[in-house]
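Hi L.,

You mentioned the student needs an example of a multi-chain input paired with its predicted structure. This one should do, with 661 residues in total across all chains.
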Amino acid sequence: METKIIEHSKAAELFIKDEKRTDWHNETLWFVREKRDKAAFQIPDWELLRETASQIKNNVLSNMNQYLIDFEANAKNNGIIVHWAADADEHNKIVHSIMEKHGVSQMVKSKSMLTEECHLNEYLTEKGIDVIDSDLGERIVQLRKEAPSHIVLPAIHLKKADVSETFHKFLGTEKGNNDPKYLTEAARHHLRDTFLTRKIALTGVNFAIAETGEFVVCTNEGNADMGVHLADVHIACMGFEKIIPQRKHLAVFLRLLARSATGQPITTYSSHFKKPGEGKEIHLVIVDNGRSTQLGREDFRSSLKCIRCGACMNTCPVYRRSGGHSYHNAVAGPIGSILAPNLDMSKNADLPFASTLCGSCTNVCPVKIDIHVQLYKWRQKLVKEGYSPKSKTLMMKGMSAVLSNPVFFNLAGKMGRFVLEKMPGLVSNGLNPWYKQREMPAPPEESFREWYQKNSTASKDKNNEQ
Amino acid sequence: MSSKANILEKIKQNQPLSVSALPDLSFLGLENYENLDKYKTMLQSIGGDYVEVADYDGVIDFIKKNYNTEKRIITTLPELSQIASTNWTDDDPHSLKDVELTIVKAHFGVAENGSLWVTDDLMGQRIAVFIPQYLAIVVHKSNMVTTMHQAYNRIGNQEYKFGTFIAGPSKTADIEQSLVLGAHGARGLIVFLMD
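Structure written out for the whole complex:
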């Protein structure tokens, strides 16, 4: 699906036009951030837990090759069929070929950001496969033909009235009934029929354990398990960075994941898939899709430590006021902005600039990724390689001409002060981005340079007198 | 070269040159809870509830009083055959769609988060703990661990095909962050804390 990409700043501008809704979005996500804080503060060793998780993930990155070899061998031993996909296209083809092999044209799917990244739904739909997303939030956005706007809370951009309208249209619920309980119940009935009739179920993977060849899928709704245990074939898709060394390391990550994501002590279900049930198949697709390239970028490789909790989005002042869709990438927010340029620098050059670099993302990250530092480094890299976003390029060129020439600089300062004082209408208008949501400052009477020249001579004279 | 060989080769070239050490986990999970009390508080905070019983007769009494025994109740516990059927484990999993209540046993509970560790040998069928309208789990009071670290120490190299931590009833907050119990799995979870 080739859609025209709107730069983050432009998309954000559209988002904040509805001021009330922007405030609501901001407050809703901050509420989730506060729940995270409350849960984290209940663990006295929270910081040690984060540090430990970070060290485990550093070990994984440095020994990735061996862990993947071990994992595959152990998973095969358990009766799991393992596939490898170099990119999104190969991933999609593998999934489709499994469906073809079983002569099945319907799939039920639980949440997998990887399949969003690979645009699997679009691919399968084109091949005539009927795909139903079973996570409630994902089902809502799927019915509306939208993408998830958040990796943990896919429909966080919608109000209950929006959901009610969508369900009325597609599931025949009462018009105007906005009760979340009523709407969830309707989805429960609708999706139960789906679970009971699908032969193939696809899930994501939260953690894959090299030592045992098992993998873990976490949900609150139970939708992954409902799909998988009623189907004949379970397809699980994972980016290779989901590997962790040993079963006991799950303790660290399961303690951190839900607390960081939603403030729960653990998700309702943390299901460990080791061997297929009798007469059933488990297929596991291990995907690269640019990850091995990112592993080679020393400045950015630690982005592969991410466990997809979404804490960096909930805390981000830019995400909260621009919405997930403004990031035009499967993973939005701060972490998405350091992952996306690796996939395509030209398409995603705007994203590392969608940040105030305040560092809040880094402070909440459960695996201690230095997200804001990487955002800053991506900016340098993108500009150096000629990918800086259009809106910035012209201004930067102008600035560099002015700043590198003292005569220009002096003149520009004088002009600026003159304009601000005598013709404020020239700058206090919608054409000047700095005037948006701000008043222009009162101009100083003279520049620092002018002041210094006057006063340094005066003080010199004074010194000489003594 | 196959994709597998290509990917593994590229990873080998691009991963850091020296392997960084794995951390010591022995400094974690030193919380000092009264396990059973903490378990009860956490379970209720995540939407579950508990009943303390002396033995299986206590379970039977409670179920007779609080659930509609006309509806389909299944269990893997022979001690409960008076109130629940036990001969369903080889049935087609889809045939369990009308189950009102499933009663199974857990290996142990985890105080810090209210979860229970259940493996397929205790489930009868994997779907049995997900598909019923309500779920009841029996666990011995002595089988409580403090945190997930003790949980995995206890699991150790336990052999299972499928295992899951179950923490409360199925839930969602996907509609405007309003918490609703009973998304796709059980609408309610009652834990029988047995002496």
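You could point out the following to them. The mean pLDDT of chain B is 97. The first strand of chain B starts at residue 49 and ends at 53.

Best wishes,
N.
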